[in-house]
């Protein structure tokens, strides 16, 4: 943010602010309250009640207080617990590869070359593509037997090609890989802006001292852009737990439960089994985990982020 | 030095090509006859070009409806969201009222609550409001974005206050300052917002999937999924359906990619 000039006190018109505040703010605030704040409160409330498809909401008398039972149930539900574990595995595959790929691409895209706009448009194509299209495309390309990727691998003599989305061990990394391909362009632009803001003087000084390009990257570029790296890592971790659309359209949790991640479990409990309260409790546990991870990162940033 | 530039250009073109290779296979398959769609995937230009897949889609029972619904939702969302959010951002950036900082902080902190957290609660609330199975369920809840409230507030703060003070002295009210001074000066930020809202709306899958059931009322993303299972064996037709669904965003993006990229850098928009 650039310098911000403060409004001078005592300017005529400030007295008229009261009406203006109501006019400008109330549409947003009322809408936010109804569509965003209210569901947050009722999500918490639901998680302490016992609402399922058989009771329903129309029959208030059948809804009972569950206390912490829905939360306790989670810790005795191996399928739910393992789905949370799989979300971590996904995050572990997705976050480092996304950020490293984005930084590498950013370093490349700032170089001097022709057709830059065209190249950028092509790299951005996956980012603007809807997830169902992505799923249909990659589902066909990565089909283990007649998919293009394995056909090409076969031409190069690979006989034991991976099962990709259909493999017990490969489905989560494959999903993460597809997500990186789809999301990387955006991170690339943010990193590009950060790298371009690094003062040229720093590099000149390093040139004079004879530091190699690699050395310059690790001792100048990376420390200077560390606030951006921090922000990108924090947001990409939060995003990595919100992968319902990706998993639902590509594997729906399969093969077996190999790619059943936390959010898939939440949606399934709610909309397939009708265990609404239990689903809400799981969603809130997931939220608390994401919150904890974010807080830990805020605390830890002093060690490596230079402002 | 020019050799180096040429080498970089060649390298970057190959790299960019790798990103869109799946789309090239897609377009190629959509123009082939189904039986030979992936016979020789490396043959990108088919021997006989088959336009029938596209013709068939236009005559599909729902495809045109899904397409129209997606356009409608995106357009209405853009208009109202830009209006509501920019007005809110104006209040936070340019007006004085008690508890402003605290209220803003509270709003910002709700960004931590991911949509999945409230999905069940929202389902019940929307159904009691009668929004389920209407396009409004995709529009109304998405209007009050805290994210763009933050971006626009930052941008509005950077517009010199001297400008609005001069207008106040000339007797202008806040509505005039907002519409004649602040909004025109914030055009780059607003344009970026419009693009993002369009892309997010056009590509939204989870909300229509959960909140809308009848196929005749669906939007393109979920419709496409049913289209895929309907023509499970006809790969070429599927690919034509996918290609068409990408067309509006790709065309738009090709035209505005420069502003889009600058907008991300300018506003510091994140994910």
Description:
The complex is a heterodimer of chains A (307) and B (271). Chain A has 307 residues and is an all-alpha fold. Helix content of chain A is 66%, strand content 1%. Chain A is built from 13 helices and 2 strands. Chain A has helices at residues 17-47, 69-75, 78-109, 116-124, 131-141, 148-155, 171-196, 200-208, 213-224, 226-240, 244-250, 262-271, 276-300; strands at residues 49-50, 64-65. A two-stranded antiparallel ribbon of chain A has the order 1-2. In chain A, helix 2 (69-75) crosses helix 13 and helix 3 (78-109) packs antiparallel against helix 10. The two termini of chain A are 14 Å apart. The relative contact order of chain A is 0.12. Residues 1-15 of chain A have low confidence and may be disordered. The model of chain B has no long low-confidence stretch (mean pLDDT 89). Chain B has 13 helices and no strands. The longest helix of chain B is centred in the C-terminal third of the chain and has 33 residues, at 235-267. Chain B is mostly helical and 271 residues long. At the A-B interface, helix 1, helix 4, helix 5, helix 6 and helix 7 of A face helix 1, helix 3, helix 5, helix 7 and helix 8 of B.
